Amino acid sequence: MLLKVSLNHLDEQMFINQMSGTSLRNTLYTIIFHSDTPGGRRFDVVLLWLIVLSIAAVFLESIASVRQQYRQLIVAAEWFFTISFTIEYILRVYSSPSRLKYVFSFYGIIDLLAILPGYLGLFIPNVQYLLVIRALRLLRVFRILKLTRYLNEGNVLVRALRASLYKITVFITAVITLVTVVGTLMYVIEGEKNGFTSIPVSIYWAVVTITTVGYGDISPATPLGQFLAAVLMIIGYGIIAVPTGIVSAEMARASSAALKPCPGCSRPVYPADAKFCANCGREQDVS
Question: In angstroms, rounded to a whole number, what is the distance separating the alpha carbons of residues 135 and 280?
Fold first, then answer.
């Protein structure tokens, strides 16, 4: 009988501990992943300030005079931010309903990359400057401040870039083929005596020339080489306009698809497949 009572008591205690752990995990999840609660909003605002201050610390460390005078203070601040973000990352993994999904998500990878340079800096010199990756975490400001319009405009841009992917791929392949051929010709025409010491160096010259950058570190000296360079420069001006036109056309198409007016208030509905208007709340026809 005593053993039975003890086992019941143990089962009850385990149930209480399990419920307590679940309640703690749910509370952390609400605070960390949701910005529509007072606690979640305060957490996100504090997090954004920590990100901004940590990036400022990295910038200051890169200035020699500041680094020499305040090195210990800056290092202490960087470790404070690194440890804080490490604790935050652990809590995110712990409280996430699907831990693997968060770890391999966009924000999950960015959160991990935001803390790794701090520890790698113990073994690899100057790698701590990669902590500026934390700037990508500021993308959460759109979610926190409910800037839905900006998020949807970003989605329009993403859709346009995806639609342009195959055309841009074909275009880049053509450009790579062109600079390879021209670079090889310049190597044959100019040779090593004029600075074109190898085919890769000549291809580098062709890339610099076709993009109209023109560093001037290598230049043709023969009349035939100069003629070929002039032709490549003229082609370069036309090539610059091609990807711009491709993306612009897809942007216009994606924007027109996203601008569906609401029957109630006549304002654009974001996103286009939304069931309700964000301005007046009227239900939309998504058929």
Answer: 35
